[in-house]
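EI: anyone free to look at a 914-residue chain?
SC: sure, send it
EI:
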Amino acid sequence: MATPAPTAQNWVLRLFFVSGLSGILFEVLWTRIFTYLLGGTTHSVTAVITAFMLGLGLGSYLLGRVADRSTRPLRIYGLLELGVAFSGLVAFYAFHHIESLYSVLYAWAPQATIKWLVFLIAFVFVSFSATLIGGTLPVLARYVVNRDEGLKAALGQLYSINTLGAAAGSVLMIGLVWVLGYETGYHLALALNVVTGVAALLLSRRENAAPVSSSEAPSASPPPTAEPRETLDGRILLPAFALSGFCALAYEVIWFRLLDFLLLGRLTTFACVLSVYLLGISLGSVAFSRWSPRGLSDLKLFVVFEALLGLLGLLSLPVLSAVSGWGHRPFTIAVGFLLLFAMTLLLGGLFPLAGKLYAGPMRLLGRTVGNIYSANTAGSVLGSFLTGFVLFPTIGTSAALLLIAALNLGIAATLAGVSLRPLNTRWVGTVAALAAVGLGGWFSADWLTRYYEHVSLRPGFRVIAESESSLQPVLVAENGQGDRVLLGGPFQSGETVPARRQTQKLQAHLPMLVHPNPQRVLEIGYGVGELPRTLLLYQPELLQLVELDEHMIPVAEEYFGALNEHASRKPNVRVDVMDGRHFLKMSEEQFDVIMSDSMILASEGSLRLYTEEHFREARRHLRPGGVALVWLPLNAGISKAMVILKTFQKVFPQSLLWLPLGLNTQEAFIVGFRDEASIDWTAWREKYERVARQDLQAFGWDSPGLFFASFRAGPEQLSEIASRVPMINRDMNPVLDFLPQETPAEIDAAVRQLIAYPPGAIFAHLKDGPTPDESLGALRSEVERIHEADQRFFQGVEALERFGARPPSEVLANAATLTEGFRQALELYPRHHASAVWMAQVLGLAAKVQPPMEPEKVRGLLEEALRYSPSDLAVAEALARLALQRGDKEEAHKYIERVRALAPYSRLAATETP
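SC: here you go
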């Protein structure tokens, strides 16, 4: 083949950089799309990587042979880029309308298979586009590589420039999604492919025709060339390089799971891991294609790289775990990415080495590159798929990492034993000694559990149970006091502390009280299970539970049974293990109440439950008179909360905002009505007296007035608030992913604005029976008193804020002044829950004053605190311990029973019962 002009070749390399950039844009965008098909981030990453790599391998294998028969490889390259643009466009619109397949498949396919049938269709679309992308490397290798002596450098340069473009694309993706959204970002990727394809076709007009290769097939071992060079039998190299690809993608999936605990499950997690991965491969490819350590042949270097990968695999988890224990999260992230980068440098260096060791005659270069690339990608396909869907659920993350590291060492040992003669005993001994040290360090501790504890839990908590699925690890942790926390991956799914339990209970009671006769209820997400247990108190005809992770409910019912009472096993409960959005797409059932568990606004899975499309799907499944409930965590950021409010209000214009005071996390709820926003007072009061009062009494919510005073805004006020919000959260424009977190002062100011709305707004939506109910007038008067008490409450909060962070002794010494606002609020309304909680917190400091106060004085202050706030666990525990110290078993028993009601797993209740 004629040598390409330097200028033309430089332009081709630039085009290949852009090709890598657009290719990775597709991969990241397809990952997001797959989250709507599979429902989980790990599943989605695994599926996209598998489909993408399968296509790359198939394309390199088939189109490498086409390149060898072509006289104009640059023209083929241009056509391939245009083909990627066209197939990507078809794939986009297929994905965009794929939801319509659910209703078609639901009519004839078993429910458990529908998601996977849709996934298979999407998988094919990704693989087809990736096949065309995979063919670009061998085709350009046929164009660029023009002499045997520069083969390794040319292959390294091509592979590096394309991978560098991919690394740039993965970083650029974050900004594109934030500014333009997924849809526009996807079309930009398509446009880049069109520009690349057209430019390549224009350059090909000046391309000299290359001689067509003969039809002879290459031998298993490439024939010798004019100049002797080191080669390796393809029957040995190709399987070794395939196994190396298996390890490479397995490492990527494992590292994604590990770093997800540090980066918290956002789009940026995938983009950051991918960019570091690709940057390392790119630099490693170009560096080791042009430079080799003195005294090491290509084959020896290949063996050394595999051995080093195995050793780094053994060291990575212990090092990451140990560093995370220092408590500096940014430094831990940096160390994690440094380890990942070191491994990818070695992975990048393997490709040009393998190409040089395997390369046959120049006339069969396309086939040669296609063979090694397809072998590597075939291993990559298995590595990503088996790690995500088989190794994680069967042997776990730690054992999977150990297995992959051992496989790298096995590849090195096999190649050395078969192809390096005589063996250098010093090198062998060094590697064996390092491997022994690495294995010893690996088995010296449970590094993965330590890592989870360091990066996911508050101080003092230790993991007491782990259960790994292909989706995520499910963890249960406990502290010395017996408080338990349930985590799904890096995110908290529930806990036993009274404040969180109160939120769960209120969240469940609210829609069941608002709906006049809730018989069919859908809850998305199980958590610790207290929410479904509370819903069942109303004895609905059906409680439909939808939980994404098959391990979540068994773990919750084993370790949190005192809270959930094994709700999933009740006869009127039906459980589907699937994504909540998928359930709504597939099912045609109708419900009276639809709600989600209070899921943190961080992960891909939870953010998808706050989009306009999800809210519309929920509305479609409501029966006449039905209500939907959405959690509004103001503490997660006012900007985010207001976007959720606007998005929900657009779908449910008849909504009521419910914001109770006293929850230290500042959480609100929006009740959306399918029809008119109205509450049947007679039905509400009957259910409250029959169910809610007793269940909530221990938490201080023993008055209807507290519930109705917490309705802060109706449809008119919410419409006015929404009009000031410029954004809506949509599937293809997920603005919640990128909004900032405001300061506590800004959040508090926004809460006060919501509280300031006139208290009587709820009564416009309160429907009385045919006979006027005098209790309704008493309720109105109660709500007005509560609203006035709210203002006194905020005066008390401001007084505490002005006092600043002082020692408990100083706070107690000034307690009378500091609690004046709270006392005034309680005089206006003795049940004012927020004031009672804050009073209890101030008086409860008596147990913390050093040196200790007089026991009887401490006891008096604590008893006063408990009268104000019966749900204050710390005060109840302090009173129980004081009673035990003075030997009053009867009083101790009384307080321990209160502790047990608030925190069933309290160590005090379990070990010190008189």
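EI: The first strand starts at residue 462 and ends at 468.
SC: 👍
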